[in-house]
Amino acid sequence: MNSPKAPASSPPPPDARARARSIQRVTLVAVLTNSLLVLGQMVVGIFANAFSLVADAVHTLSDLFTDAMVLLAGRKGGEPADREHPYGHGRFETAATLILGTILAAVGLGFLWSSGMRLQAMESAAPVHQAALWMAGVTLLAKEGLFRFTLAASRRLKAPLLEANAWHARSDAASSLVVAAGIGGSLAGYPFLEPLAAAVVGFMILNMGLRLAWRAMRELVDTGLPDEAVERIGDTIRATSGVVGVHDIRTRRMADRVLCDTHVQVDPHITVSEGHRISDAVYFRIREAHPEVKDVLVHIDPEDDGDLQTPPPGQPPERAEIHAVIEKILARTASLRRIQVHYLGHRIEVEVMLAAAHLSQSETDALKERTERLLETDPRFRAVTFFVQVAP
């Protein structure tokens, strides 16, 4: 049973395009900041003979390429669903988060490698001008500010992609800290401080990169929500009027959204329209109680089929066959108005509505006898009940 669309009176969901534009604006701030820092680090690094500052400028330049990737993924992720992507384009953000997490891990390994190499060449540090230390300090403050700005935006927009980029900015701040420590150590006569700081920061960046990449990987393989979150959704479903039971609640993430599908058990004798009404109620209650869930697919069950792993033995009769059997039982003694079939426990119960008719006692007894014979000879039928419509 397909999930319904929210009526016009309900609060509209967050605008994906507006969210994508916000992500792009935040990323453009990062692009502008990195561009200015690259220019400043290059000029001051060459002037002050601080090649570590020039190397940090090259590192910052690489961020511009990752920022461009974030812009592209954020714009693509905000596009509405289409024929090729019926669930939307949120996974583009997830894929970009995985790539950025991998880059963070690689940067962390690079710091570890660099610190080891520098420890083996302590005497090769060239004297630098004090202006390099000031530039490293400005870079450090700018990168830390960019990290906090981007991280706050990622939490407000619930965008893991921006969070990954924020921690990338923190890795750049750590890189600038390493450069500042190296330059300060060189100026103060303690060059060993730079490789030690690089090792500590390398471990931090490597850990964060692996965590972000692992989270994105779990989302790409459709890892469900934690058990306690699924149980809360189940409690919401069970509290819905008309729900008898619930099972097979399945969830998965797609960027800032959670998708959910579930089997809901209802009274087996209600009509299709009433069952659909209950599914609508379940849908809207979940959306209201759990705002992170953006889409719910509700499957209505007339009985608990949670343990059903294989198809039932034999096939129950289709409506055309049932109609023919009932017509044969009636033997033209009454006009058939409607048949309602309940498929329960791999067998069926049939409710037959007859037009207003005056059956004699013998006709009634004969109808009862033919019905009992059917139930004895055809195990597919559990019960057949006749109702006579009273003329107004």
Automatic annotation (TrEMBL):
The chain crosses the membrane at residues 26-51, 95-113, 172-190, 196-214. Residues 28-221 form the Cation efflux protein transmembrane domain. Residues 225-303 form the Cation efflux protein cytoplasmic domain. InterPro entries: Cation_efflux, Cation_efflux_CTD, Cation_efflux_CTD_sf, Cation_efflux_TM, Cation_efflux_TMD_sf, CDF_Transporter. SUPFAM superfamilies: Cation efflux protein cytoplasmic domain-like, Cation efflux protein transmembrane domain-like. It is a multi-pass membrane protein. GO terms for molecular function: monoatomic cation transmembrane transporter activity. GO terms for cellular component: membrane. The keyword Membrane applies. It is found in: Membrane. Keywords: Membrane, Transmembrane, Transmembrane helix, Transport. NCBIfam families: CDF (TIGR01297). Belongs to the cation diffusion facilitator (CDF) transporter (TC 2.A.4) family. This is Cation diffusion facilitator family transporter. It comes from Azoarcus taiwanensis.
